[in-house]
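During the second year of the project, the team shifted from modelling isolated chains to modelling whole assemblies. The rationale, set out in the original proposal, was that interfaces cannot be judged from single-chain predictions alone. As a representative example for this report, we include one of the complexes processed in the last quarter. Its constituent sequences, exactly as entered into the pipeline, are reproduced here:
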Amino acid sequence: MYRSQALAIKYFSAAMILFGVMTLFGLVSAYYYLNSDFLFGILPFNIAKIIHINTLVIWLLMGFMGSIYWFLPGELGRETAGIWAAEALFYVFCTAVAVVAVVFIFVQYGGSNEAALWFINQGRKYVEAPRWAALGIVVIMVVFAYNVIGTAVAARQTTGIITVLMIDLIPLILLYLIAFPAISNMSADLFWWWWLVHLWVEATWEVLIGCIMALALMQLLGTSRRIVETWLYIEVALVLGTGILGLGHHYFWIGTPSYWLTIGGFFSALEPLPLLGMVVHAVYDAGAQHMKTTNRPALYWMMAEAFGNFIGAGVWGFMITLPQVNLYAHGTQWTVSHGHFAFWGAYSCGVISVLYLVLQNTRNLAFVDGSLWKWSFAALNLGLVGMTGALLVSGFVQAFVERAIGGSTLNAFISGQENAWFVDGMVARFLLAIVFTGGYVVLVWDVLTLGRRAPAVATVAAAQ
Amino acid sequence: MSGLATLETGLLLGLYALLAGIWGILWALTQLRQAPIIGLLAAAAYGLHTLVALIIILWTPLGFGWKCLIVGSSLVFLALPPMTWRLLQRTHDYERSEHDRESSQHSRRLMARL
Amino acid sequence: MAFSDPAFWRAGAVSTITVMSIVLIMLTIDSLAAISPGGSHVPPYTVINQHIDYKFDSNHGFDAPVIGAAEPLFGKTLDNAAAAELIDRGKMVIQSRACIDCHTFFGNGAYYAPDLTKAWLDPDWEGWQAVTGADTREGAMVKFLMDPEQYRTWTRGMPNLGITEPEAQAVVAYLKWMAAVDTNGFPPNFNQIEKQR
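Output from the structure prediction step:
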């Protein structure tokens, strides 16, 4: 096994732990809506939420990095360049994440000064981590980029997929620099902040997961390189073709000129189209294999990725992307409904798929199946979709009561939050979050015991 | 736009996109299964999608330009699954023919040596 | 056949990304001018010295801020430099206390607490003047921010974040400035229902 692949396993392990932390703090955040006195004065909502959304970003980033570290040596025929640096930085990364989390929980806030931003909390959504940690993330990502580019240079060769990846990493890292400034003007702050968030999750991350899925497909289904590369270029063209100006759907209400209503609305309305293409492609691949594979969970999670991406990001996004609707839906649980489903479908399912591919290899399994993965697949997906549905109900009500009827005053906000349907939606969300959590626990159990359980592993014959 | 009209338009837009997705999936399945019932369901899904598009155009307070976008998107949704499938077949067939060509070239070289 | 050739699609990807990126950069340059304080959509920081309102603009078809007569904040008229300093400090408070992780600003943030885009204009502050014993709206807001647990608005309370008086004043100034930003009509109908009542 290459050192890069051993490192990949470490990254996947850390990613799985952070997934658990994310889920735990998601449960806590969801519970506050049902009982606002819970941990009041001890752990405020915003701290729980900060940990929830920051671990979301980090667990996915670690999953992406693990995937690339896993596939890279096989792609380029040699050990990853600078692997010693990556190995050391992995421990720095994990330690930094732990320190940041501990400071968030126990220190929480500083004064209104630069020191607080450098050492405690930057207070900008998704990038609350203090500047020292943000600097660390930049270093880690630069080394990661070096690992990828340096390996291609040392191997004196590259592939289409790796070339796309290398080019993608440059804007991905540069965009993260937007995590540093504290801009007084909220319009300008949010303008640039959306360059980071949107051009990460609706552009550079899409390309990154596209590269990972291309690499995974070659291993999972034996699809030829030429085919996955062709489709990667098509996906990049369509996703970025719609997503770059689709950034404008975040520029409706932040004080920007009104031409963004048309531009942002139009291009983001086109964003579901490439995602439908991906779904058709997934059905084609499934059909070509008759759903037969030596790794059933990997295939099913990859299918979930294609479908979840289309429905969570595409359909749910389409509901609220036109400015006429967004005016009322903006800043409500409708947004939350979309956000949870989109992140899950577009990224989480793909990372879990690769995790099972890695496990097949590390546990020397000719065939991966069983009942545990099915239970976790069902619970995680039903839990997530259920949460999304519950949040949609609450979001509807909030959009109607708070924005349309109430005019978004404090009293309107309270009316929305106290509405019976809203409350029922939040209760249902919490209950389904528990289902999701159960799915996570079973996933971890499956991952820990796969290939180590009696009876003995199925033979190749059983795979046919 | 009134609040209720907003909610309803948002719902309709979601249904519109979802039905387009169902149409795409079912259309793709008809290529795999060749079962008439799946073909009928696919047509029904697109029919419902068109109905929802019509409701959006006739009944919601969206502006003219946005309604044109709905019409245009519906046409693209109609064409997208067959286009995607054809391209998939073409790329896979090209791959197979290249493989066959290389195999037959290999066989010819082998025969020439014997 | 070109469609089977990855190079065809690679060229398509490169050209699409190039064109879209150029358009984005051009629009960004234009937007940055509009959103700078004093630009077409964002008022200068000295707007905190004036009365702010929010009314339906029939030209644009949505609600827009209306900047009125002199109405100094905390009884003091500030020049550009002093106003900017207050706004800078207000934003530092907002970031250091991670307000955006409970509240929304222009609808962005977290949804546990109210949107603060037009919080300066909220009709409830009139009642809070009596509760807090403050003479002015800004006085009531400062008292609330300094001890939100004492002046709980409803069952879901805001925790005490250790906000000092100068910090609270800076936040209030920030909220007054934010209320004057032209957000293309967000939030819709703000306070219209209350006014009709």
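The two ends of chain B are 82 Å apart (CA to CA). Chain B has three helices and no strands.
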